[in-house]
Amino acid sequence: MSRRAWVLFAAMSLIWGVPYLLIRDAVHEVSPAVVVFSRTAIGAVVLLPFARRGMRIVWEHRWPVLAFALLEMVGPWFLLSDAERFLTSSLAGLLIAFAPVLALVVARLIGLEKRIGRLRIAGLAVAVGGVAALGGGGMEAAGPWPVVEMMLVAVGYAIAPQIAATKLREVPALPMTAACLTVAAAISSPFALMSWPAQAPSALATGSLVLLGLLCTALAFLLFFRLIADAGPARATAIAYVNPVVALALGVALHGDPLTPLIGAGAVLVLAGTFMATRRSAHEAEPSPAGPAQAPSAQASG
């Protein structure tokens, strides 16, 4: 990759490791609905001026775009924001690393992957073992439901790229993202109004919401599209292996999240298993032209 591509890769790995920390700071004072509305509304306002020319083709594909918005943004961001009231940002970031593994399973079920080799099956097992190690090492949630929510987030992140790959290949990424953020803001707005805080949030919570919208949503997508153009979609999505590490480091350094040898081993197993599960050996069939690598996705965006 070029020097600029490496700079973009490093920036995206950092930027999409930050949302888990910001969401955790925000949900202590505002509802998950307010978090979702704030980040999507800010992101939509920033991106829409850059996306006007492509809105006609977005409208022509409105139903797949709606499905993509629900599975990539609305559902996952509601669930993620709710889950982070009961688990650490470190654990949230590491559980999201499971999304590429689930994407592989989904792709196999719907026929985008014709064959899964032994290495990738082993990767699935290693990643599952890593999640078990995280719990055994002391990185616990307040009950099973937050972990279930994070798994549902990963499912949404796994299915949405398949919709983009099969139904939205002709839709430019930037207008599609702006439209999806607008849809997400519209859907979340009534829930946000019903749960709007009676008192103004603190500077920390307000700053977290603004950064979520400006840095982790609007700017992040603009940089991600540039990274895809410079490095290609396959290399661009490799940030999924890096930003969970950033989330873990930030959680430990700024929030005092636990870090034991078993947690460290679990994090390594999750990332190694994910890498193994998403690698294609020379003996495996190539994906169809509409395979998931063709579709830009924010599956690790948080």
Description:
There is one protein chain. With 302 residues, this protein is mainly alpha-helical. It has one domain (3-294). It has helices at 3-15, 19-26, 32-47, 55-60, 62-83, 89-96, 99-110, 118-136, 145-167, 173-194, 203-231, 233-236, 243-255, 261-277. α3 runs antiparallel to α10 and α6 (89-96) packs antiparallel against α13. The longest helix is centred in the C-terminal third of the chain and has 29 residues, at 203-231. It is globular and about 45 Å long.
Short structural description:
This protein is mostly helical and 302 residues long.
Question: What descriptors fit this protein?
Answer:
302 residues, 14 helices, globular
* Residue runs with pLDDT of under 50 for 5 or more positions: 285-298
Specify the biggest β-sheet. none
Question: Helicity range of the residues?
Answer: over 70%
| Secondary-structure class | mainly alpha
Rg on CA atoms, Å: 18 Å
Q: Please report the total strand number as a whole number.
A: 0
Instruction: Label the overall shape.
Output: globular
Order of helices and strands: HHHHHHHHHHHHHH
How many distinct domains? 1
